[in-house]
Amino acid sequence: MEVSVLNINGQETGRKVTLNEAIFGIEPNDHVLWLDVKQYLAAQRQGTAKTKERSEVSGSTRKLGRQKGGGGARRGDINSPVLVGGGRVFGPKPRNYDFKLNKKVKVLARKSALSYKAQDNGIVVVEDFTLEAPKTKDFINITKNLKVEGKKILVLLPEANKNVYLSARNLQGAEVMPASTLNTYKVLNADVLVIAESSLKAIEAVLIK
């Protein structure tokens, strides 16, 4: 699949790049996409929810009433879960929600996500660029020139660029990241991928070994 290379003014440079079929032209696998997105979202969870059990609630341990004959449930001390203000039974505890996925599964998921974007014509390739200073206005002008303004965009750069990152940070729906840190969720969440020309080699280096 060939894609025209644009400059940041939205003009064609007269050059074209061929997207690697092994990455952008495979048959997408929906199940591994689901697994990878599920793992990414699970890893974002704080997992800090905590409730007190009866041994942790502040209160006397004196038995409130006789064991039998009261006409109600056995309840022991005032910290019993059957009483208001008592401890909670089997409440949440701090935990890590992340789980392991095989590397091959994650690679296939990223290839599938990129293939979906290629099928939907959701990829724009631009010449490598940088910004002299972090200015949101300059970044907005680039999105206007590329005709992606108002869309969720993911900009993939060959390496981290502080000025470009800071210029896009305050814009809702715009995200900038190095191509080497590409993940399935970010690709699927974006409407358009804006890929710097050199980033294609970085993507190949990560996904084809």
TrEMBL record:
Which UniProt keywords are given for this protein, alphabetically ordered?
Ribonucleoprotein, Ribosomal protein, RNA-binding, rRNA-binding
SUPFAM superfamilies with a match to the protein in the record: Ribosomal protein L4 (SSF52166)
Stretches for region Disordered: 46-77
Q: Which GO terms describe its cellular component?
A: ribonucleoprotein complex; ribosome
What is the stated purpose of this protein?
One of the primary rRNA binding proteins, this protein initially binds near the 5'-end of the 23S rRNA. It is important during the early stages of 50S assembly. It makes multiple contacts with different domains of the 23S rRNA in the assembled 50S subunit and ribosome. Forms part of the polypeptide exit tunnel.
The UniProt family comment states: Belongs to the universal ribosomal protein uL4 family.
Describe the protein's quaternary organization and the partners it interacts with.
Part of the 50S ribosomal subunit.
Name listed for the protein in its UniProt record: Large ribosomal subunit protein uL4
Can you name the source organism? Segatella baroniae F0067
Gene of origin? rplD
